[in-house]
Design brief:
single chain, five-stranded antiparallel sheet, SH3 type barrels, Alpha-Beta Plaits, alpha+beta, 11 helices, 3 domains
Length: about 350
C-alpha cells in the first residue's frame, strides 16, 4: 500500500497523463499494426507468388491483445517514478507475456508450414503426411520447452542444473526405449529419404508385396498371397530393398533346349526363329538370342528381351505368348524340345535309351 501511495505522491498529473497515453497508444497500435501488416504481406504474396507473405500474415493473426497489456503497462511505468521492486515485478510480467506471445507466433508459423506440406503430400503419400504431422508436433514441443527454459532463466532459476537433470533423465529414457526410438527415427528416415512410398511393390529378402502403410513403428506390406506382413521400420532399413516402382522396363532372360538330333541347318536358323517369336509381340524390345552351350541333355539357346513396362501381369502375358509362338514354330519345323534322358551302353553292343 505504501508503494502505491509513494507512486501517487512522486508523480504529478502530467506524468500520469503521459503514462496513460503510452498505455492506450500501445494497445491501440497493436491491432492496427496487425491488420495493416497482414494486408501488406498477403498483397505481396499474391503479387509475387511467394509463400512467406502468407506465412507472416497468418502468424500475425495469433497476436494477442491481452498479452500486450503487461507490455503496455511496463512501458507506461517507465515514464513514472516507481519503486525498483514494482518496476522489477512489471518487467518480469512483461517478459513472461512477451515470451508467451513469441511462442504463439512460432507455434502458428510451424502450423502454417506443416499444413502446407501436408496438403501437398496428402494425395501422393498419405503416410508421409502423417509423419509430417509428427514432425510438426516435435517442433512445437521443442519450441515450448525453449520458451519455458528462457522464462525460468529470467525468473532467476538456475537452469543449468535443470538441463543436466533432463540430460541424465533423457539418456535413461532413451536406453529404456531404444527399440521404439529406433523404429521412430527409421520411420522419419523412410518419409524423408523415400526408399519407397505407399503403393510401391518391393522385395525384402524372401518377402515381396505392395506397401500399404508406413506407420511410426512398423510398415505394413500386402504380400502376393494376400496376407499382411508387418515389419519393424528399423529392421526394414537394415535389409536390401528391391523397389520395382522406378523400373521402367523389365529385362527377361530365358532358355530353350532342343535335342541333340536336331539337324545342323535348323540349329543355325533357331536364333532367328526365336527372335521372330519375341518381335512378334507388342511392347517388347529384342536384345539377343544365341546358341549358348551343350547341356547334359540338350542344345541350350539363351534369349534376352525387354518388356517395355514394369507391370508383372503384362510381362507374364508376353512371356506366355512367346512360349506359344516358339512351341508352334518348333512343331511346324519338326524340332523337338529336349528333356532329361540317359543312354545305357549294355555289354554285347546293345544300347538302349530310357527316360528317368
Amino acid at each position: 500500500m505504501n508503494a502505491w501511495q509513494n507512486m501517487l505522491e512522486s508523480n504529478d498529473a502530467t506524468g500520469w497523463l503521459i503514462a496513460i497515453g503510452i498505455f492506450a497508444a500501445v494497445l491501440f497500435a497493436v491491432p492496427v499494426v496487425r491488420y495493416v501488416a497482414a494486408r501488406i504481406f498477403r498483397s505481396v504474396s499474391r503479387r509475387t507468388g511467394v509463400a512467406w507473405g502468407d506465412a507472416l500474415a497468418d502468424t500475425l493473426q495469433k497476436t494477442s491483445i491481452l498479452l500486450f497489456v503487461p507490455l503496455a503497462a511496463y512501458g507506461a511505468l517507465l515514464s513514472l517514478a516507481v519503486p525498483a521492486r514494482v518496476e522489477r515485478l512489471a518487467a518480469l510480467v512483461a517478459i513472461a507475456a512477451l515470451l508467451l506471445q513469441v511462442a504463439l507466433w512460432g507455434n502458428r508459423a510451424i502450423g502454417f508450414w506443416i499444413r502446407r506440406k501436408v496438403e501437398r503430400a496428402r494425395a501422393a503419400d498419405p503416410d508421409g503426411a502423417t509423419a509430417l504431422s509428427l514432425i510438426g508436433f516435435g517442433a512445437r514441443a521443442l519450441l515450448w520447452i525453449f520458451i519455458l527454459l528462457l522464462g525460468l532463466d529470467q525468473l532467476g532459476f538456475d537452469i543449468t542444473a535443470l538441463l543436466a537433470g533432463l540430460g541424465v533423465g533423457g539418456i535413461a529414457v532413451a536406453l529404456a526405449t531404444q527399440n521404439i526410438l529406433g523404429d521412430l527415427f527409421a520411420s522419419l528416415s523412410i518419409v524423408l529419404d523415400k526408399p519407397f512410398v505407399v503403393g510401391d511393390f518391393i522385395v525384402l529378402d524372401n518377402l515381396r508385396g505392395t506397401v500399404e502403410r508406413v506407420g511410426i513403428k512398423t510398415t505394413r506390406i500386402r504380400s502376393l498371397d494376400g496376407e499382411l506382413l508387418v515389419v519393424a521400420n528399423a529392421d526394414l532399413l537394415k535389409s536390401r530393398i528391391h523397389n520395382y516402382r522406378h523400373m521402367h522396363e523389365r529385362r527377361v532372360l530365358f532358355s530353350v533346349g532342343v535335342t541333340y538330333g536336331t539337324p545342323n541347318e535348323k540349329v543355325e536358323r533357331l536364333p532367328q526363329w526365336l527372335r521372330e517369336a519375341v518381335e512378334g509381340q507388342q511392347g517388347t524390345r529384342f536384345d539377343r538370342a544365341h546358341f549358348k552351350e551343350y547341356g547334359d541333355s540338350a542344345l541350350v539357346f539363351e534369349i534376352v528381351y525387354y518388356v517395355l513396362t514394369r507391370d508383372y501381369n503384362t510381362y507374364m502375358d508376353v512371356q506366355q505368348a512367346i512360349n506359344l509362338a516358339i512351341f508352334a514354330r518348333f512343331a511346324r519345323e519338326g524340332v523337338d524340345f529336349a528333356y532329361p534322358t540317359r543312354t545305357l551302353h549294355i555289354a554285347g553292343g546293345l544300347t538302349g535309351r530310357e527316360a528317368p
